[in-house]
Design brief:
single chain; three-stranded mixed beta sheet; globular; alpha+beta; about 120 residues
């Protein structure tokens, strides 16, 4: 039986908060059998896929028709939620597509992405 992805996502206007709730690296890994991922949208409806791998057996989720994707490699990361969050933050901030669409920040076990809105409000 697949384990549920061990994080939660809260959406408020153009801000998304991803809270990392597990200290177990394997709980985050996307496999063909569990298809765990986070999907973010920008103000134009583009899809940004975030998926995790901790031991090189991870598999990119399929069938999502994403525009951009970023694998977060947590292999060798200290098994605590704050370090997992920091690794995800660095991976997303270091990806030019994610960095162009979102302001990415984090503290503790919470990662926040804020759409870089231009023009009229999109709520």
């Amino acid at each position: 039986m697949p384990v549920a992805l061990s994080l939660s996502v809260t959406l408020v206007a153009e801000v998304s908060t991803i809270t990392f709730v597990s200290n177990t690296l394997a709980d985050y890994e996307s496999l063909t059998s569990n298809n765990q991922y986070v999907l973010l949208y920008d103000e134009n409806g583009k899809k940004y896929l975030v998926w995790f791998d901790h031991d090189t057996t991870g598999a990119k989720p399929t069938g999502l028709d994403e525009d951009y994707d970023q694998e977060v490699d947590i292999q060798g990361v200290t098994a605590n939620s704050s370090d997992i969050r920091a690794t995800a933050q660095n991976a997303l901030s270091g990806d030019s597509d994610f960095a162009a669409a979102f302001t990415i920040s984090g503290t503790g076990d919470a990662l926040t992405t804020t759409n870089k809105d231009t023009g009229a409000a999109t709520d």
